[in-house]
Design goal:
The chain is of the alpha+beta class. 32% of the residues lie in helices and 25% in strands. It binds beta-D-glucopyranose (BGC).
């Protein structure tokens, strides 16, 4: 573990169910905006301080809709054949969060005057953020504030906000201004993407309709309010103002000392993307009226009921380690808040919490994030694998652009097209095809969803298999082994290499699965097989080639070192003492020229070790240990996808300290800002990796031959931990303490699994067993 990652101190107060900021520091505003983000997989909003600031404070007021993007032409210094022409950027949409508040003519902002009793809390159980404080203005006016907001996980078009303010030592005029402001830009786009099409007010619902210039997607927003004084039934209507790109509501109200003023604000969004045609403006107005009629309390209740079920199914309990309990819950909530659930949207590397990576989806989904949903909420997992089916045509086109048959999935995308300008660490990562197929295989295995496999999954498996057959070759100087050259593996610090170990093994798994499915279809679904063969123009000879390539795949192993070389050249590169690199020069990707990064034995992230997790049964524990010893001192973990894999493998090979420390780094990566980049958004792959550290690491869960296997132990510092798994329709709860493990079959009839070498069978009559840990 790199020394600069050690001993990070918590930034926010430790608590089981809450993230608490006890002191407002404007210098941390941009980081806290990310941490206090809210979302529901459709809408995401950064934790903007609604009233803004009067001094210069770094931040990015961001609101996003999953899958809603603009394309801009990529400007190349030196364009080359088949480089992607268009980028895609998840748009920062109209600002509905900002609010202005004045006491007489004095504007309230937290960077002026004085704050007493401040706290901001992300309530993880309820999925809401609250801010409570007493503020004293520069001229001595004191008021008590209570601000709360959430984005409904149940009513996905709706967000709700509530402001309560009580003057403590004065009576006067309170002026409040809210707005839908369409004059918003993204940091990374050259042009302002959204053009205002319609704006206005109907039945007290403010609205704004905009359209993107290039992609021609529509977005509509409706906003309604309810402003009351405590104890009074009637509410106050605002004055409305319609400006060029903004619709505003303004109230001026006389408030007495100690009188509470309560503003409820509801917003609804709807969008039309390339696969949709809807009356978005009508829908947004209809939804916001429905929200306003229901009211804040009722909406919140519906939202928290959704979360109650989520936590009941998904929670991971860690006893005796508050920091990690908080960390893992934060990660799980943020994953839920970020994930698209409609089969057309996915989960971005930064979720819906920032503009880093421009809102792109990566292999992060399949390799890191999918397991968390698959074994907890398989319907969400299904929508993630469906996303790849729904973008298969784009993958086909991309393969054609590169003169290949079949399909090649994009490394970075939103809409399905490749958008990365830097092919060395994108297009060259052909392993994405195998990652997608691995996810499909795991999905089908864990859910037995044959309907998905037959109607969607298999087409992806075969089309992507075709690419491998063309992309590799039988090389005479390697004894006619099937080699795959000029690729980048997961470790982006070694670009354009031959025979990346991860890629070759995963391609082999992919090709064998493609062959296995062909056999299965021939026997079990012969008509469908013929239909698909016709549709894909698939020849029997192709399947023979897949088998031949898989049987003869070149699988790197070095006898002398007793390890799996990451690629053909890695072990011959110059060694480098990475502990000697100054912290300011990390991550290397931003501070060294690629040629210098590539020429040393330095890894950005887990590569061979990741393979040892995904295809665990292919490697002995001794070999995993040897590889851990070899790669650990060479890895900077400049990618947030790394630490979790090191933790899982460390657990397996018995390096308990490494396992714990890498888990700490993973689970608290964002809360403690390990890589000093949280202001750009959260790290969703690492967040899901934290779940893997517990389930695959400490509990040692693996699945092979359609059976669950566990090898649980409890880290020294903990008393116990507990989680559940849904596998083939059975829900199993696993509770591990220092001595023993309790398995309880919560749902389903019968389940057999392994605890170390012992086979256990549970059924509904006999649904619990306690066994000793080895
Ligand atoms: C990593 C990739 C990852 C991407 C998005 C990069 O730094 O090297 O593996 O897909 O971040 O999370």
């Amino acid at each position: 573990m790199r020394s600069f990652h050690k001993n990070k101190q918590p930034i926010y107060h430790l608590d089981e169910w809450n993230i608490i900021e006890k002191e407002f520091q404007k210098n941390n505003n941009d980081r806290s905006e990310t941490i206090f983000s809210l979302g529901n997989g459709y809408i995401g909003m950064r934790g903007t301080i609604e009233e803004g600031f009067q001094s210069d404070v770094a931040g990015c007021k961001g609101s996003y809709i999953n899958g809603f993007y603009e394309s801009e032409e990529i400007i190349y210094g030196e364009y080359q054949y088949a480089f992607p022409l268009w980028g895609q950027t998840m748009l920062n949409i109209m600002d509905t969060q900002s609010i202005e508040l004045f006491f007489d003519d004095e504007r309230f902002t937290m960077d002026r005057g004085h704050l007493e009793t401040y706290s901001r809390v992300l309530h993880m159980k309820d999925g809401k953020v609250s801010r409570q404080f007493i503020w004293q203005s520069p001229t001595g006016k004191k008021a008590e504030f209570n601000i709360e907001k959430f984005i409904s996980l149940k009513d996905i078009h709706i967000t709700a906000f509530q402001l309560s303010v009580r003057p403590l030592n004065f009576s006067g005029i309170v002026r409040i201004i809210t707005s839908i402001n369409g004059d918003v830009r993204n940091e990374n786009l050259r042009d302002q993407a959204l053009v205002t099409k319609e704006k206005g007010i109907v039945d007290n619902a403010m609205y704004l309709l905009q359209q993107t210039k290039k992609t021609k997607f529509d977005i509509a927003c409706g906003m309604m309010h309810c402003l009351k004084k405590e104890g009074l039934e009637s509410y106050f209507n605002p004055q409305y103002f319609i400006e060029e790109k903004e619709v505003k509501a303004c109230w001026e109200i006389k408030v007495e000392k100690d009188q509470l003023l309560i503003l409820e604000k509801f917003t609804a969004f709807d969008v039309n993307r390339k696969y949709e045609t809807k009356k978005v403006l009508e829908n947004a107005i209809k939804e916001v009226k429905r929200a306003c009629k229901m009211g804040y309390k009722e909406l919140l209740l519906r939202h928290t009921e959704f979360l109650k079920e989520f936590w009941e199914k998904t929670d991971v309990i860690i006893k005796g380690d508050l920091a990690l309990q908080q960390g893992i819950r934060f990660n799980m909530l943020q994953l839920l808040q970020s994930v698209g659930r409609d089969g057309y949207t996915n989960i971005a590397a930064k979720g819906l919490t920032g503009e880093g990576y421009e809102g792109h989806y990566f292999w992060d989904t399949e390799t890191y994030i999918l397991p968390f949903f698959l074994y907890n909420n398989p319907e969400i997992a299904k929508s993630l694998v469906m996303y790849r089916y729904n973008t298969l045509n784009n993958a086909r086109e991309r393969a054609r652009e590169l003169d290949h048959p079949g399909a090649l999935y994009p490394w970075r995308t939103i809409g399905g097209e490749e958008t990365s300008a830097y092919f060395e660490a994108s297009t060259a990562q052909y392993h994405i095809n195998a990652d997608v197929v691995y996810a499909i295989k795991k999905y089908v295995e864990a859910t037995e969803d044959k309907e998905f496999l037959v109607n969607y999954g298999v087409e992806v498996v075969w089309e992507t298999a075709r690419l491998w057959a063309d992309r590799g070759g039988f090389i005479p100087m390697r004894g006619n082994k099937f080699c795959i050259h000029e690729v980048t593996g997961p470790d982006e610090y070694k670009a354009g290499v031959d025979n990346n170990c991860y890629t070759n093994y995963m391609a082999q798994m992919h090709l064998y699965y493609a062959v296995e499915l062909a056999e299965w279809f021939k026997k079990e679904a012969s008509e469908k097989y013929l239909e698909l063969k016709r549709k894909l123009e698939l020849q029997e000879e192709e399947i023979l080639v897949w088998k031949k390539a898989a049987d003869n795949m070149y699988l790197p192993y070095n006898e002398e070192l007793g390890i799996n070389p990451q690629d053909d050249s890695f072990i011959y590169k110059e060694p480098y003492d990475i502990e000697g690199i100054q912290v300011e020069r990390l991550p290397l990707v931003f501070n060294w020229h690629p040629l210098n990064i590539w020429r040393y034995q330095i890894c950005k992230q887990a590569d061979v070790l990741l393979l040892m997790l995904l295809l665990s049964e292919k490697f002995s524990v001794e070999l995993k240990k040897a590889n851990f010893d070899y790669y650990e001192p060479k890895t900077t973990h400049d990618s947030s996808l790394s630490a979790c894999i090191f933790s899982v493998i460390a657990s397996e090979v018995g390096y308990k300290n490494y396992a714990y420390n890498y888990f700490m780094q993973t689970a608290r990566m964002d809360l403690d800002d390990y890589n000093n980049n949280v202001h750009k958004g959260l790290h969703t792959a690492s967040m899901a990796g934290a779940w893997m550290c517990v389930v695959n690491g400490f509990a040692g869960m693996r699945v092979f031959d359609e059976m669950l296997h566990f090898k649980p132990y409890t880290p020294e510092k903990w008393d116990a931990y507990k989680f559940s798994i849904l596998y083939k329709g059975r829900r199993l709860t696993i509770e591990v303490n220092q001595k023993e493990t309790t398995y309880t079959l919560q749902e389903g009839n019968k389940l057999s699994f392994y605890h170390y070498d012992q086979e256990i069978q549970l059924c509904s009559e006999n649904n619990r067993i306690i066994v000793g840990n080895n």
